Amino acid sequence: MHRTVVGVDIGNSTTEASLATIGAAGSVEYVGAALTRTTGVKGTVNNVEGVATSVMRSLATARIPPAELDLVLLNEATPVISGLSMETITETIITESTMIGHDPRTPGGRGLGVGTIVGVGALADTGPGKPVIVLVSAGADFDATAAAINTAVGRGVDVTAAILGNDDAVLVANRLTAAIPIVDEVSRIDLVPVGMVAAVEVAGPGQSIRTLSNAYGLATIFGLDPGQTKAVSPVARALTGNRSAVVVRTPSGDVEDRVIPAGSLDLLGENRRARVDVSRGAADIMTEVARVGPLRDVVGESGTNTGGMIATVRQSMADLTEHAPADVHIGDLLAIDTMVPQEVRGGVAGEVALENAVALAAMVRTRESGMQAVADAVATELRHAGATRVEVVVGGVEAEMAVRGALTTPGTDKPLVVLDLGGGSTDAAVLEADDHTGASHLAGAGDLVTKLIDAELGLDNLELAEEIKRCPLGKAESFFHIRLENGTAQFFDTPLPSTAFARVVALGESGMTPIPTRHSMDRIRTVRRTAKTRVFVVNALRALRAITPGADLRQIGFVVLLGGSALDFEIPELIADAVAPFGIVCGTGNVRGTEGPRNAVASGLVAAHVSALSNDGVRVHG
Ligand code: ADP
Ligand code: MG
C-alpha cells in the first residue's frame, strides 16, 4: 500500500509544495510540485489559503484525486517579518536664492557664461560692456525673447547666457545670432534674484559640466576666499555629472550640508551591548552588530525615526502573532549605506541632490510559533476540499529540511552549507559530516534589494524596481535594434514599440519595460549590482561566518544557493566571486535534479519523513 504525502514550505513570499508517493518498502517517488504566493505573514493562520492552493495544485499536476491524499507535512515556520526603514542622514539646504544643480532635460547652446542677472524687459535699458545674463519668466514667447537678445547684442550688450522659465532653450538658441549657453525649465523663476552675479554652464551632448562642478572653478568665477570656497564645495559636489547648471551668488545666500540626527540604536547582544548613532553610517553599525552578536534584541531611541521604525516592526509582529510586544525580539539587523535623491530645500527649480541615507532591515522572531494552529486549520480546509482522510502535521525545522532538500542536488555531499536567499531573510544552514546541523537567520534579502533600487533611482514604483532587479538592461538605439548592457546588439524584424525608443528598457521574458527616468543605462546597472552586493554578498559572508566554527570560511567546502533570489541572473555569480578566495565551491541548487533552487524545504520534509519511517522500522525489527 503506498501513501501520498505532500511537504509544504511556507516562506515569507512563496509557499511551495512537493508531492511524493511512498511505497510500502519506503521507496520515494516525487510526482508533483507547485508554488503559490504566501497568504498572510508566515507562521500565522492566514497561511491556510496559500497552503491549500499549493497542495491542491500539486495533486492536480500529478492527476491524483484529493481523496487519496494521506499526509501533509508543514515546516516549523517561526514567524519572521522584516521591517525596513530608510533614514536620510544628510540634507542640503539653500538659503536665500542661491540656486544649484538645475539640470533641464534640454538645455540650449553650450559653454560657460558669467554675468549680472538682468530681466529681459530691462535689456533695452542695459548699456554695452557689462556682461549680463538674461532672465526670462515663464509664459514669454520664444521668438520675442530671441529678438530682444539679438537686438541687445546688436547694440553691443555683452549677453553671456540666459535662464528661462519655459522649456524653450533649444528654440531660443536656434534663433540667436551669437551662441550662448541657456538653461530652461526653472519652475520658480520669480525667486531668481535680479542684480546678482551668476554663472550658467551647458556642456555638449553626452558631456558633463566642468567648471561649476569644480570648487576651484566656482572660486575663480566668484572670487571666493578659501573659507568661502569651503562653504560652496557642496554646490560643486551636487552639480557633478550634470549636463548643465546655473549658480547664483547672493550676498548671504549659502548652501549647507547638514547632518540630520537620526537617533541611536541600542544593540543588546548575548554577552555585550552597544549604542550606536545611525548617522555614523552602515559600516559602524555593522561593526557593532558583529561585535555584540549574537543579537538578543534591539531598541531604538524613542522620539526619533529610528526608534519609530523599530517600535513599528515590533508592534506589527506582536499584533499578527497575538504575542505581547515584550515577547517579540529582534534577532538580526542589517544596515546599508545608500544615496537617495531628495529635493533640495530652498531650491528654485525642484533641484535634487543625492543625500546620504541608511537603510535598516530588522528581523523579528517570536518566542514560539503557532504552527499547530495552522496545521489544524489546513486539515479542516483540505477535508472540505475533498481530501477526506488527510492528516496534517508540523514536520521539521526549516533549516534542517533545507539542507536535506539541497542534498538532492546532483554533485553535493556532506558537509554542506545552504544559503536560502528568500524575500525577507537570508537563511544559512549547515549539515556536518556527522549529521550535526546548525542554522542562522539574517535580516535582508530580495525585497530589500528591490527597495534599494526603488529609492536610489527615485522611482517610487516597486513593481518597476522588481523588474529592474530581475532583468538585464538595454537601450533602443533604432526602431530595429537594442544595445544590450553587455555591449552587444540585438536585432528585431518588426519595429520596437515607440514607448521604448531611445529609452533604457528592462528586458524581461515577456517583453521590454521602458524605464521612465533620466538615468543612464550605466547608472541603473551600477545601482542594481551595488544593491545586490550590499545585501547578498554581505549577508552571505555574515551567514557563513555565523555557522562556521571560529568563523573560518576555509573549512567550508560546498555552498548550495536556494530560494527565489538564487534564480537571479547575477546574484549567484556575485556570491560565488566573493567566496572563491576561501576555496569554496558555490553554485545554485538543483533540488531533485529538476526543481532548480526551488522546493528544497518541501522536498526535505518528505525525505525526513521517509527516513524517520525507516528508522522506526529498524527499531521495530531490531
Ligand atoms: P521566501 O522563502 O521568503 O518565501 P522566496 O524563496 O520565494 O522567498 O524568494 C522571494 C524573493 O525572490 C523575492 O525577493 C523575489 O524578488 C525573488 N525572486 C523570485 N524570482 C526571481 C527571479 N527570477 N530573479 C530574481 N529574483 C527573483
Ligand atoms: Mg524560503
TrEMBL record:
It comes from Mycolicibacterium vanbaalenii. Residues 276-608 form the Diol dehydratase reactivase ATPase-like domain. Residues 94-255 form the DD-reactivating factor swiveling domain. This is Diol dehydratase-reactivating factor alpha subunit. The lineage of its organism: Bacteria, Bacillati, Actinomycetota, Actinomycetes, Mycobacteriales. It comes from the Bacteria. InterPro entries: ATPase_NBD, DDR_dom, DDR_swiveling, DDRA, DDRA_swiveling_dom_sf, NA-bd_OB-fold.
